[in-house]
Amino acid sequence: MSDAASRAERRVALVRDDVSGRLALAQEFYTHSSEPLRRYGHAELSFLRWSAARGVLAPRTGDRPGSAWWRSVNEGLLRDKVEAGLLCAGAPGQASAKSVEYWVDCVRDPSPAAWYRAHNASIVSGYLRHEDLAVPESQVERFMMNVALLRVLFTHAMLVRPRLALGWLGPLGPRLVDPRYRTVKWFLDLGRSFPAVYPVTLPTVDTILDEHAVARMLDYGVIAPRLSALYAFSAAALEEPRLVAFLDAGVPAYVWTAAERPLWYVGNTGAHLRFIARVTGAHLSWPPSPAGRRRSSRHGST
């Protein structure tokens, strides 16, 4: 392990059980970087604050233990950024992973495309590395993991492959998801979609049906019809072919069994979702399941 990688590992270990320390370390990467890069942290830091508030980053001991999976994925992102910052500051060594190489490129020549490539490479690396930690999580938590992934892959595509993401509305994409602007949080904010406390106690179906109407339109009307093309694009852009295995029969399948596949049809009800798909140049083909015709406790039927 290089000097930079070792130092990054030690730096992250210091905040492993300190949630506020994690937040500070994530913020430090942007505030201590060059002026152009300082504006790139909006979405990442917003998601991190939401994660901290939910309790998933809390220590594994205590009255409300955190999530080993969410903690580990977050640590990987922090470690990659710290190592890249050290390398750019002159610390000896070579990048320990491709994701670190991408962060080095981003620090040296910041751009929205460079930021998404680095950030998503770190996230996907964490998903791949920590599948074993995801297995013990509840079904609803694993559902949320998949939604978090498809959202961040989609925003990357909105920036660099806007027609893939939005069809003829593609020209709107790059400005909406530019990480330098706060509008990107509209697409990555899971606080509008899922319960704010870990662990989630609602059944998975109820959690899906309680998703905010606008968030559901995004997930099921815009993103769902494009998942195969979206994951193929991301696998190529991140040079990570294993990513496509996170889909099964066109639906998200990260630590997800074939028997659980019908749950992805639950929110896919309502002619408005098919209309949204057509307007953005896609075809919504998922059939609604009987469970999908249940009424939501908060938003009613769709």
Layout of helices and strands:
Elements: H1 3-14, H2 19-31, H3 42-54, H4 68-88, H5 98-108, H6 112-129, H7 131-134, H8 139-160, H9 162-166, H10 173-176, H11 185-188, H12 204-209, H13 213-223, H14 227-237, E1 247-248, E2 251-252, H15 271-279
Antiparallel strand pairs: 1-2
Helix pairs in contact: 1-4, 2-3, 2-4, 4-5, 4-6, 5-6, 6-8, 8-14, 13-15
Overview of this protein structure:
- The protein is mainly alpha-helical and 302 residues long.
- It has one domain (3-293).
- It has 15 helices and 2 strands.
- A two-stranded antiparallel ribbon has the order 1-2.
- The longest helix is centred in the middle third of the chain and has 22 residues, at 139-160.
- Separation of termini? 53 Å
Rg, please? 19 Å
Number of alpha- plus pi-helical segments: 15
The strands making up the biggest β-sheet line up spatially as 1-2
Query: What percentage of amino acids are in beta strands?
Result: under 5%
User: SSE order, as H and E?
Assistant: HHHHHHHHHHHHHHEEH
Overall morphology: globular
Averaged pLDDT: 90
Structural class: mainly alpha
Largest sheet: 2 strands, antiparallel
Q: What is the number of strand segments?
A: 2
Low-confidence stretches: 287-302
